[in-house]
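RECORD TYPE: inverse folding
INPUT: structure tokens
STRUCTURE:
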């Protein structure tokens, strides 16, 4: 199979970091980028109402402010992995941090919604550059497996904490310093990350590889057309001339991408791996999980402020009991996974999230807050477990040789899920404006997404792994059972036994 251009160098080719460098400094340098990226997906949701008010942005423009970032983030992730291989992970990480830093400043200074959308698109490009490189540099900086596993656990917990606390931090910043502060907070984090990386992170040399540039361009065009169709369809009309052009662009880019992937030696996606049920299942689960989770966060931030009249700070505090489970679940996974396989874990917690979400199909402005918080917390209680479980299932399916390629593929699919989820919530709220049924209908869609993910986990991860384990056990049992001739063997079998 041709290698995807997001694969990275083997661990043993990377230089070990200087012994005098504390592990905490390395972790801080490489977690800085991921923390900024995680924060900027969630804090903007709480600031959405303030941005709408101060920049006179429509719901469609607000959706672009959130999804414009996710669009470039998701579409450039695979290409960024290839650039890191070609130029060097440390160089690409610093480039991404610098672009993200400047784009964050542009976001804070944006005078109009259109300017903010443009700055967010550039911000997403910066995040796409440093995200794959962050993980690669962390793995290469800790060659010893036990230490590397410990650092990866801490790194994941830091990112999960940033995502879980993002709405609360965003609400506090918006209430105290205005919506611009959610972008200005990236500046000190970015400076610290860049300075520590330049000083303490060893470089990883690049290698001459050919990037699948035509495929990536088609991939970007297809995602951009899909985003435009989902976000602008309700405003322009699904049958309008601009939408017909968008459909044509989406169809053409998709067909050309399929042709490219069938005939090119440099692939955008590792399609060969999708023949493995667990690999396909983990990617589908990742897509649906992010669609439901981030769609919920986008919906709740608007619902609490518009339907219930909460301030950004109040909305952030009210979201905290619903999101604090992200880091707690991350920490619990290391204990639970030792006793329960990833497939059943995914099936259980995704089913729980789906059923809890469906109970909110009666949501209205008069629904008691405690009921909403309890229900969403129940849905989110497994979020910190689902994320590492799907990653572990994916790596198990791909094998160590394709681990980096598989991780890049999952991250790209998860971000596309975020993109589609936020757009779908926006479409639903726009289609049912000023109607209590809008949020309730959104929860119906979210519940269906979770339950579909649960069924996918059972069908493509749990069942195949269970069957494979049964076959392995039977093979092992038969290999330890002495051969015995049947009571009435056929002549062929009898000759075999006699021999």
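DESIGNED SEQUENCE:
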């Amino acid at each position: 199979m041709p290698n995807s251009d997001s694969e990275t160098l083997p661990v043993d080719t990377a230089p070990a970091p200087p012994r005098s460098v504390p592990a905490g400094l390395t972790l801080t340098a490489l977690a800085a980028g991921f923390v900024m990226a995680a924060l900027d997906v969630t804090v903007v949701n709480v600031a959405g109402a303030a941005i709408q008010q101060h920049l006179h942005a429509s719901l469609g423009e607000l959706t672009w402010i959130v999804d414009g970032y996710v669009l470039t983030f998701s579409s450039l992730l695979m290409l960024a992995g290839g650039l890191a291989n070609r130029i060097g992970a440390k160089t690409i990480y610093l480039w991404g941090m610098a672009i993200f830093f400047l784009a964050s400043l542009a976001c804070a200074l944006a005078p109009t919604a259109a300017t903010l959308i443009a700055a967010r698109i550039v911000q997403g490009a910066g995040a796409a550059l440093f995200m794959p490189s962050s993980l690669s540099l962390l793995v290469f900086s800790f060659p010893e497996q036990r230490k590397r596993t410990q650092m990866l656990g801490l790194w994941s917990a830091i990112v999960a904490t940033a995502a879980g606390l993002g709405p609360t931090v965003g609400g506090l910043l918006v209430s105290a310093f205005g919506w611009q502060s959610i972008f200005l907070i990236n500046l000190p984090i970015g400076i610290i990350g860049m300075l520590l990386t330049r000083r303490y992170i060893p470089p990883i040399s690049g290698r001459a590889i050919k990037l699948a540039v035509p495929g990536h361009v088609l991939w970007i065009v297809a995602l951009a057309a899909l985003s435009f169709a989902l976000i602008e369809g309700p405003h322009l009309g699904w049958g309008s001339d601009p939408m017909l052009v968008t459909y044509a662009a989406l169809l053409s880019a998709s067909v050309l991408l399929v042709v490219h992937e069938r005939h090119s030696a440099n692939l955008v996606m590792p399609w060969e791996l999708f023949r493995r049920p667990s690999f396909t299942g983990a990617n589908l689960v990742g897509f649906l999980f992010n669609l439901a989770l981030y769609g919920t966060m986008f919906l709740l931030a608007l619902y609490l402020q518009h339907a219930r009249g909460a301030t950004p700070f109040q909305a952030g505090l009210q979201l905290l009991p619903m999101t604090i489970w992200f880091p707690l679940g991350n920490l619990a996974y290391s204990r639970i996974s030792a006793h329960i396989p990833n497939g059943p874990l995914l099936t259980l917690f995704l089913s729980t999230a789906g059923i809890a979400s469906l109970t909110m199909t009666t949501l209205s402005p008069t629904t008691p807050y405690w009921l909403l918080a309890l229900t969403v917390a129940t849905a989110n209680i497994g979020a910190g477990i689902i994320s590492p479980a799907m990653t572990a299932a994916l790596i198990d399916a791909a094998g160590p040789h394709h681990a980096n390629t598989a991780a890049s593929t999952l991250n790209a699919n998860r971000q596309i899920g975020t993109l589609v989820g936020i757009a779908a919530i926006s479409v639903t709220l726009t289609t049912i404006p000023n109607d209590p049924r809008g949020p309730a209908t959104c929860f119906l869609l979210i519940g269906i997404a979770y339950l579909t993910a649960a069924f996918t986990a059972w069908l493509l991860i749990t069942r195949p792994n269970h069957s494979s384990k049964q076959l392995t056990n039977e093979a092992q049992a038969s290999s330890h059972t002495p051969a015995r001739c049947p009571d009435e063997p056929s002549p062929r079998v009898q000759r075999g036994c006699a021999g």
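NOTES: The mean pLDDT is 82.
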